[in-house]
Amino acid sequence: MAPPLAAVLRRHHLVLLPRLRLLLSTSHSPSDQSDFEPDPDQPLPTAPDDDGELTSFLRRISHAASAASSQKDALSLLLSSPSSASAPVATSPALHIRALWELRRDPDAVALALRYGDECSAVAGAEGAGPPPPAEAWHLAVWAAGKARRFDLAWAVVRRMRRRVVLTRRAMVIPMERYAIANEVNKAIKTFDVMEKFKVEADQTVFYSLLRALCKSKNIEDAEELLLLRKKFFPLTAEGFNIILDGWCNVITDVAEAKRVWREMSNYCITPDGMSYTLMVSCFSKAGNLFDSLRVYDEMKKRGWTPGIGVYNSLVYVLTRENCVKDAHNIFSKLIDEGLQPDVETYNSMIIPLCERCQLDEARMVMESMILKGIVPTISTYHAFLKQEGIDESLRLLRKMEEDGRGPDSDTFLMLINKFFELDESGNALRVWNEMRRYEISPSHSHYMAVVQGLVKHGCIPRALEYYDEMKEKGFASDPKLDKEFKTFLLANRDHWRGAGKYNIIPQRSKHFTRRPRMQ
Question: How is residue 502 annotated by DSSP?
Fold first, then answer.
């Protein structure tokens, strides 16, 4: 498989002929998805009008990286190249950030591009250091390294930021978040503790960012323990407990743990606020506990907290799930009386449980009502229907999703492949696989594994082996369990494979089978 940097250049060679409009968002397939969040005060720039300069810059980075034996040599090569004299680096901060984004899957290339930009700005300063790259460029480099678990590179960028006197709190928070996602809880906490040494204030806002990162990565118990251990430095508040509640209510829906945290708030004399009640209503709603959802809602109003749209969406969901559809419809009127307007999540809160109960006609009526009000269905809306529809209707919905600009995405096809294999419809699962090409979605490791495991489960081992070989040829990691299973199969069928059907016949000249010489 080609290295990531080369893959970037191939994509630009083919795609940049028409003007590229890659937005820095999460509208890619799961393998491309990003949790990188720029500073809301300084959003990432949109795509430039001319991508020729971007392509040229990426090529220079690629040439230096391939020609040099180390990043130091690559940097020297870039700085000494003739092109650096006329165009030392991407001429605008926006273009520089875009280049880093394109290189995001190769943290070494990102670090090289960032260092090159920084060195060029220093040279441009003549009497001293010129303006360093913008904060978003540094943050993106730290994030790319952390996402690839190259924490050595992430810390190298952080240290350089400190030397350039541009170190920000966000640059320290990103490694904390990446450590948490990698389940390196102690290192995430240690990163928080060393912030003062880097002369970055570790205040309550940063502490709460650490707690959120731990909860998001399902290390909720560790987050709660840390909250209580540090209560002398960061006094307990409803906001802090809400972070833990959110973990138990939304990241992992565990009603028992959510109730326990609620009692802990009372034990520490912390009064629940509106967000606390909102989270508890959401938790009970997801668990299908209609009684407690309504009880907490009533208590919330008695305490003087005004329910927001999220609370009403939770009530719509639990009422519909418990087959109280008429009462769920009444919530829409209640929303308007409260000065709120139903949003797409309100409608989804009714459509999703209706689809789960296979009440597809009722769900379609709700969807039509939503569209008439000018609310466009989301990808979640379509997924709710796709989970229940047959192959023909599913293919029609995929086309509708494309027309509405709501996908389909990589998750859509993975869901459908798994669904049809579970329904013992291997042929339809493979139809969905072939349909991916029409929507220009490249199969990920998860897609290959779903197809291979589904075919093996249904006894189509020769066909599964074809996809497994293709998966490995694409550079994806093999699976030891499948390796063992295929090896056993191949040893048992060295001569031929007995059976009918085009999916069960393996040609004798297949690379896996060799004909034994005949006995003379």
Answer: T
